[in-house]
Amino acid sequence: MTTKPLFKKVAIIGVGLIGASLGLGLRRRRLAGKVLGWRRNEKELARAKQIGAIDEFFASLEETVEGADLLVLAMPVLTNVEFVKRFSTIEKLLDPKAVIIDVGSTKKDIEDASKIHLKSHPFVGCHPMAGSETPGLEKAAEGLYEGSICFIVGQSPTVQKMWEALGARVLSVSADAHDQFVAGTSHIEHLLSFALLNSLDSKSDFFRELKGNLNPSLEPLARLAQSDPDLWADIFWSNRHALFQKAALLQNAIGEFTKCIRPDLRSSERDSIAKLISRANQRAKDIS
């Protein structure tokens, strides 16, 4: 028995890691009749077709989106917002019942823009919590979303079915709640990794000697610190209000430790350090 695709034609604008993985999943699980992709780099589009992420591509955006009943914005978050602001240039080319989604990691900016500029088509903000610190097609995978969480801001049973068919668990949230959550569970971790690596002397004799053999505690932070600068500058800027609050809380928490490790303190203060670590132990258990 053949299952009817959820969408007749999907247009993915921005075929990188997230967009290409979505295209692979839609095509191989037969969730779309046809998947088209668009980005400015035609060599990358040809590569996306070669790996099976899209069926075909056109040089023009207009040809790509014509007749699409699902439009996916998979560009950096601020670029997605600017695209929404210029939506009127392609609005009439879409299927009248088309749904527009984005897959960016901030939601408030694009939700605000969609309320002003996307009045003719429903918009659903999506954030699949999957990916890699390395952007691009190299790590695109059909099963990237298997076992992941996908936050959804807005209502669309068909979009929810799509993510569930791709193996994701869907959670409906508000844009504000989403941005506050990811500020504390993803964005601040990246900020911390950038700040920590900026504080290290990577050209010291120790690091030269240990090249490729980092301490296991440093390895995950060093990996995060290799994340794309432009991509994460967009994310930080888009979510700067929530991230500023989380950074202030982190500074306070670091300040608590700093007070306990001053060189002039007596050994009796050692217990204060243990208490702070124990508090962190308990919170880690609470969320694990």
Number of distinct helices: 12
Point out poorly predicted stretches: none
Order of helices and strands: EHEHEHEHEHEEHEHHHHHH
Largest sheet: 8 strands, mixed
Helix content: 40-55%
CATH homology group of the largest domain: NAD(P)-binding Rossmann-like Domain
Q: What topology, given as strand order, has the largest sheet?
A: 3-2-1-4-5-6-7-8
How far apart are the termini?
41 Å
CATH class of the largest domain: Alpha Beta
Number of domains: 2
Could you say what the CATH topology of the largest domain is called?
Rossmann fold
**Judging from the principal axes of the Cα atoms, what is the shape?**
elongated
If you had to describe this structure to a student in words, what would you say it looks like?
By secondary structure, the protein is of the alpha/beta class. Helices cover 48% and strands 14% of the residues. It has helices at residues 17-28, 42-50, 61-65, 77-85, 108-117, 157-165, 175-199, 205-209, 219-224, 229-238, 240-260, 270-287, and strands at 7-13, 32-38, 56-57, 70-73, 99-102, 123-128, 149-153, 169-172. An 8-stranded mixed sheet has the order 3-2-1-4-5-6-7-8, with helices on both faces. The model has no long low-confidence stretch (mean pLDDT 92).
Task: Provide a quick synopsis of the model.
By secondary structure, the chain is α/β, with parallel strands linked by helices. The protein is 48% helix and 14% strand. The chain has helices at residues 17-28, 42-50, 61-65, 77-85, 108-117, 157-165, 175-199, 205-209, 219-224, 229-238, 240-260, 270-287, and strands spanning 7-13, 32-38, 56-57, 70-73, 99-102, 123-128, 149-153, 169-172.
